[in-house]
From TrEMBL:
Pfam families the UniProt entry points to: AA_permease_2
Record flagged with keyword Membrane: yes
Subcellular location, record wording: Cell membrane
The protein, known as: APC family permease
Membrane-protein topology: Multi-pass membrane protein
Presence of keyword Cell membrane: yes
Major subcellular site: membrane
Domain of life: Bacteria
Ranges annotated as spanning the membrane: 57-76, 97-116, 147-166, 178-198, 218-239, 251-270, 300-323, 350-370, 376-403, 415-440, 452-474
Keyword entries, A-Z: Cell membrane, Membrane, Transmembrane, Transmembrane helix
Length: 498
């Protein structure tokens, strides 16, 4: 009989978290983490800079491998619900080293996401202040494109949402429900209106990927779009706090299809209303500019308010899965015991939550080396896109190995359990590898600039190499038993919780 953990028959006794969430809460957490409003308001302009007026087809093509990844997550979660998700599943099915790397990448990429979203949140608030007529404060000109000003204001918001996350997932999910309702109402209203009233005619070229100028632009556009879908798996990080683990799988898939609908609506609407120069030229202010084109004040401010709410919600939902992943790793002694401390009052990993908020704030301060918010977003999104493609791919390959017996159970089951995860993994690995190669060959010197290929390659390389070093420390310094056992050949079915 296999162990229910990746490292042997005698794991340390785990601390337990309160099971208080249902499928709706899982959808709220995953949807807030995916942050459709921020992805549409900011990510579409960045992606258009790579692929031009081909946003709809790029969003659809990127969805296909992500759907295969989501199927792998759901299957694995059904047999082994664990807040460590890919970290545990890859460790069991492929290699403890690769499993640790998946966990580490998930943590580091989310902390990087939190750091730049802190700045985006501050930028959105400064834009909102400007719309309200407040353009100077104590003699300082308020500039939403200033990384320094945006970061300082964003850190204040990060502190607030971190403290909210400490009090429990129930209060966090309730807050995010109201934010999501407002965001989606604004998105549907403005994008729906723009879809029919925009001055630019529909073009079949928008859904023709063969007219994208180069393979590099196609690869970068797909990877940026994969980043937009990133976060649906956050529901699996709280699977031990959901009353029925199957609800985590349902929530992940519901979120993913919801995001597809919103991204396609946003893509068509943006291209109906805005020209390519307008799309790429407004960066972090894309959704605000759309609102100004479609309505007069005060209605024109609604998209900006929705963007602000989305950024705040994604800050909070980013903290939650990161801490749960570190909790799972601390439980396996690959990270220190600090990360497994549970607040007796709130039933959450409160100390770890505060620590992650502090780390994200510190990294946001370090990122001040990039002076413009738009450049910071581009550098962060590209780096995260590369490493996310790797950990998604490894999780899908783990599912294919775990359920390889399905190859003997007919073509339909083999397709869903093995073939689709493998194909999805290979697509993402190919995209990430190709983009890294183009980064390497596009420059001949290093410079801390998003236009410098070596810098763009340096960021994901640091994330990966730091993971290898941390794994070595966990194995030989911490002597974690996670690394000491052979990889099991079949999963132990996990019964539904009572």
């Amino acid at each position: 009989m296999d162990s229910p953990t990746p490292y042997g028959s005698d794991p340390p006794g785990p601390a337990t978290l309160r099971r208080s969430l249902g499928v709706v809460d899982g959808v709220v957490i995953a949807a807030s983490s995916t942050a459709a409003t921020s992805s549409i308001g900011i990510g579409l302009g960045v992606t258009a800079g790579a692929v031009g007026l081909h946003l709809p087809i790029i969003m659809l093509l990127a969805f296909l491998p992500i759907l295969g990844i989501a199927g792998a997550y759901s299957r694995l979660n059904e047999v082994e619900p664990n807040m460590g998700s890919g970290y545990v599943w890859v460790g069991r099915s492929l290699s403890p080293w690769l499993g640790f790397l998946v966990g580490w990448i998930g943590i580091v990429s989310t902390v990087v996401f939190l750091s730049y979203t802190t700045t985006v949140t501050g930028s959105a608030l400064l834009q909102l202040a400007g719309e309200g007529g407040l353009r100077t404060l104590a003699g300082l000109h308020l500039d939403p494109d200033s990384t320094a000003q945006s970061t300082a204001l964003g850190i204040v918001v990060l502190i607030a949402v971190t403290l909210t996350a400490v009090t429990g997932l129930r209060s966090a999910a309730n807050l995010q429900k109201y934010l999501l309702v407002f965001e989606y109402a604004v998105l549907l209203g403005f994008c729906g209106y723009g879809l029919f009233m925009g001055p630019h005619p529909f073009s079949l070229d928008w859904i023709n990927p063969f007219t994208i100028p180069s393979g590099q632009q196609l690869a970068q556009g797909l990877l940026l779009s994969v980043f937009c879908y990133w976060g649906f798996e956050s529901t699996f990080s709280v699977t031990e706090e959901i009353r029925d683990p199957k609800d985590a799988s349902r929530a992940g898939l519901i979120t993913l299809f919801t995001m597809l609908g919103l991204f396609l609506l946003g893509s068509f609407a943006f291209q109906r209303v805005l020209s390519l120069d307008e799309l790429t030229g407004h960066g972090a202010q894309g959704l605000t500019y759309l609102g100004d084109r479609l309505a007069d004040q005060p209605l024109a401010a609604l998209p900006l308010i929705a963007l602000t709410f989305s950024a705040v919600a994604s800050l909070q939902s980013g903290v939650i899965p990161t801490v749960r992943g570190m909790f799972a790793m601390g439980r396996d002694r690959t990270l220190g015991p600090f990360w497994t401390r549970i607040s007796p009052r709130h039933g959450t990993p409160a100390a770890g939550t505060v620590a992650v908020g502090c780390i994200a704030a510190a990294l946001a301060v370090v990122s001040l080396v990039i002076p413009k918010v738009g450049d910071l977003i581009l550098a962060s999104v590209n780096a995260i896109g590369v490493v996310v493609s790797l950990y998604y791919a490894l999780t899908a390959l783990a599912a294919a190995v775990r359920f390889r017996d399905a190859l003997r159970h007919g073509p339909s089951e083999a397709l869903r359990a093995v073939v689709l995860p493998v194909v999805s993994a290979l697509v993402l690995l190919g995209l990430g590898g190709y983009l890294c190669w183009t980064f390497y060959t596009s420059a001949d010197h290093f410079e801390a600039d998003p236009d410098n290929g070596w810098f763009m390659l340096f960021c994901p390389a640091v994330m990966l190499l730091s993971g290898v070093a941390a794994a070595a420390w966990a194995k030989w310094a911490r002597k974690s038993p996670y690394f000491d056992t052979a990889v099991p050949t079949a999963p132990e079915p996990v019964p539904d919780p009572v």
